[in-house]
Amino acid sequence: LDSGYLQTRNQEIGKIFLDLDSEFQGMMADDWQAAIEAAKRLDEKERGLKYGEGQCVFPVEGNMYGEAGAGQGFIVVFQNALIRCGWTRAKEDPSFFFRLCPKSKKLQGISSYVDDLAGAISSKDPKKIWDELRARGWIFENEKERTKFLGVVIKKNSPRWYELSQEDYVTHLVQVHEERRGVVLRARVTMPEVAPEHAKGPLECGTDIRSDIGALMYASRGTRPDLTLATSTLASASTKWWAAWDDFLGQVLACVKGTKHRKLQINATGWSEHLDDWGISAWVDSGRRKDDRCQTGVLVCVAPLEGSAKGGKPPPTEGLLPWQWQSTAQA
After folding, report:
1. Are 198 and 237 in contact (CB under 8 A)?
2. In terms of CB atoms within 10 Å, which end of the chain has fewer, N or C?
3. What are the φ/ψ torsions at residue 59 (nearest 5 degrees)?
4. DSSP-derived 3-state class of residue 110
5. pLDDT digits (tens, 9 = 90+) for 3-43
């Protein structure tokens, strides 16, 4: 859909229309295609256009992305429905909701990112949340075990051992950059050691580079915390850019290319099932939030405390990450 239509607003009547391209039309049923072609011929006749110049657009009656504030409106309405079903919003992360299963006494969780949902739900809970929401008028695909969420591929090795990967995502990120620049980056496994100086005056890096930085930021917040420092460094130079930063960006992306197979492992096999036995450090900006419109999430690092493991000393926190890494508040 993202590349299959052009969305435009008619200012005179205040309505949004979709203009579908030929490839998108080709996926429609035959009677729809015939109706669209007939409408185009009528448009050509009424406006005196040549054959093939006619247009057929569709008025949008309801579109969560079409109006300013519609996405936020959807979030508010849907998340309020979760609350009415007995779920509680986490103070640290307004997009995360939890409820205790009355039978298993285990904590259940749901992450709500606009219309993308993922949950850790107990099969013993007599209140089936998806059925509760359907009863309130919400329409879902059939629930199933997650293998991918928000571009993150999920591999379940055991109930307490998961691997998360964005290999396809970062591969595409590098390919887009290479095609845009007409270059082929030479893969490497190390980050550049020194960043260039900032330009003395304001120099905007441009939309393409901002797109690269934004994509790196999404990867670093997902499964690649080893990219956070480089991403923050690049972002700090986005308005003070010069040629040396192009080289620096290329080196960072070359490292991404050479380490695309890295995965984030969440492995609690053999460790305590009680949260009190784990050292949890969380960095959140909830103290600066004025309301629940901020959906930035939370970064949590977890490592077993001394003596809580079955047979041995727990690994350092870095052992739970792809490699030893540094982070900055800006990232």
Report:
1. yes
2. N
3. -70, 135
4. strand
5. 445 556 665 666 777 777 777 777 788 888 899 899 999 99
